[in-house]
Amino acid sequence: MRLEDFDYGLPRELIAQTPSLKRDECRLMVLDRAKNTIEHRHFYDILEYLHEGDCLVVNDSRVIPARL
């Protein structure tokens, strides 16, 4: 693995500098593979996409203040 493998274009204005005050207001990207579409929503909209029997995996990892 090389450091260059992690290099890609990402505009600075799209990088969150602080967490949302209300955690459920964070952004949610919804990919519809059947329609080949992408929607940009908020996390509080997640219930519109979950159905009985679905599995929701929660990642509670944190970002550490470090540089490569």
Rg from alpha-carbon coordinates: 16 Å
**Basic shape:** extended
DSSP summary, beta strand count? 2
Question: Can you count the helices?
Answer: 0
Oligomer: single chain
Task: Report the order of strands and helices.
Answer: EE
The portion of residues forming beta strands comes to 15-25%
Gap between N and C termini, in Å? Answer: 13 Å
Helix content: under 10%
Poorly predicted regions are none
Average of per-residue pLDDT values: 87
Please describe the biggest sheet, giving its number of strands, its sense, and whether it closes into a barrel: 2 strands, antiparallel
**Class from secondary-structure proportions:** mainly beta
What does this 3D model show about the protein?
With 68 residues, the chain is mainly β. It has one domain (21-68). It is built from no helices and two strands. It has strands at 27-32, 37-42. Strands 1-2 form a two-stranded antiparallel ribbon. Strand 1 and strand 2 (37-42) form a beta hairpin. It is extended. The two termini are 13 Å apart. The mean pLDDT is 87.
List the helices and strands and how they pair.
Blueprint: E1 27-32, E2 37-42
Summarize this structure as a short list of keywords or feature phrases.
18% strand, single chain, two-stranded antiparallel sheet, mainly beta, 68 residues
Short description:
The chain has 68 residues and is mostly beta strands. The chain is 0% helix and 18% strand. Strand 1 and strand 2 (37-42) form a beta hairpin.
